[in-house]
Design goal:
Helix 6 crosses helix 7 (192-204) and helix 10 crosses helix 15. The protein has 18 helices and 13 strands. It is globular and about 65 Å long. It folds into two domains: 8-246 and 456-475, Glycogen Phosphorylase B (Rossmann fold); 252-451, 3-Layer(aba) Sandwich (Rossmann fold). The protein has 487 residues and is an alpha/beta fold. The protein has a seven-stranded parallel β-sheet with strand order 3-2-1-4-5-6-7, with helices on both faces. A six-stranded parallel β-sheet has the order 10-9-8-11-12-13, with helices on both faces. Helix 8 links the parallel strand 6 (210-212) and strand 7. Bound molecules: uridine-5'-diphosphate. Keywords: Glycosyltransferase, Transferase. Belongs to the UDP-glycosyltransferase family. InterPro entries: UDP_glucos_trans, UDP_glycos_trans_CS.
Length: 487
Amino acid sequence: MAQVHAPHVVVLTSPGVGHVAPVVELATRLAALHGVTSTIVTYTNLSSPASSPALASLPPGISTAALPEVPLDDLPGGAHIVTRIITVVQRTLPHLRSLLCSLLGSPACGVTAFLADMLCPAALAVARELGVPHYVFYTSSLMSLATLLYTPELARTTTCECRDLPGPVVLPGCLPLHGADLVDPVQERTDPVYGLLVDMGLDYLHSDGFIVNTFDALEHETLEAFKELSDKGVYAPAYAVGPFVRSFSDEAAKHRCMPWLDEQPDGSVLYVCFGSGGTLSTLQTAELAAGLEASGQRFLWVVRFPNDKDSSASYFGGKTTDHGDADDPLSYLPEGFAERTRPVGLVVPEWAPQVEILGHRAVGGFLTHCGWNSALETMAAGVPALAWPLFAEQRMNAVKLASEHVGLALRVSARREDGLVSREEVAAAVRELMVGEKGAVARERARELRAEARKALVPGGPAHQALAAVVDMWKCAAPSPEAAVAA
Ligand code: UDP
């Protein structure tokens, strides 16, 4: 007799809070709106303490399973973050297969669909082999997905480095992009990570659909163009289920920056944070400090340990500096900086409750690395941004945020060849955002985008409809657990 149970999905998340938190939010919505239960599958390797709060108190119907640790000691010491993640994804595939088989065989559970985070499309093949519908949960913009889908063609049809392409990369419904604004691992053809990204673009083609943390008002043309391509069978369909913005920090109310913000005038504070992993060099940290001081603006800065080699060095948490032994990132700030700026500034080490900070009435600007969650969070809070991209697809996100269509961000740009942003450039950009005319225009756009983001999320609105369409599809396509196990 066929077993009947509520739809149950398995969602594989790659490491990093910027991936884990949206996965938890997706699972929470699936449970609350559609009665769909989930198992969130995490990796033991590369797990970061910052992800723990998101996984700590899950609502009923959501459970977790961790894939066992696999050895990585054969990777070179400074292996790129993408290499490390993809190696873990590949080496844990047998464990994932066992987990899916045991869930498929469980009378209480079954697997209605399998969702792989954007960095784990190699895992789709396992679900496909087991006859389980398989989707990508894409935690960045649809435009960046379009560029990754284009990567195999880029590799096949060009021979130069993409920064030397004679013209912009123009993809359907996307902003024209300079080759240098494509994701950072495709910047060097000889880099082994280049091939991994090409494979990722090919793996995406096995997906039955893309569930994307974006919304129509932000990416209308890209969604339309993607729909045309999926109607023609070029790509699987994309569903805009965002924007997902939620804080998982119980400690927010207790964090010392909140009472400090309470004392600041409305819209006066620049919040400075480079996501969960963005890392500046020692010299850049000093220039940023001097620039903030010279700007004369109020600021709240989440300071990380510097690292001169890797702009994503703190992605998995902890101390990463290659300078000295100090245990406090604030000790790497220029001497006397914290004391001199105390009347207008607050520096906090490593981590702060970002969603609450952006939602505070005192915050009037965000100096951001343009990680996609940070981008959505600043939009949802109606706070204009200064875009300072560092790695991954952040340059592309910065182009989008500063584009005429979005218009939420001003750019911080370095004139020096080595990419160092000078204190003068920092100070000028900060003043322009906080008290300049361009900043005022960006602030107005930020307010409009906040209204659009809210509209996307109203009950019965576009995000709910998109998620409902996905769930309907799962319900129609669900194989019986017995059939899948037999396959
Ligand atoms: N975040 C935070 N406090 C911090 C730094 C980061 O709460 O001090 C959160 C931020 O709100 C966002 C996530 O961590 O939800 C970072 O994701 P994003 O996509 O912006 O960047 P990534 O860390 O993936 O580069």
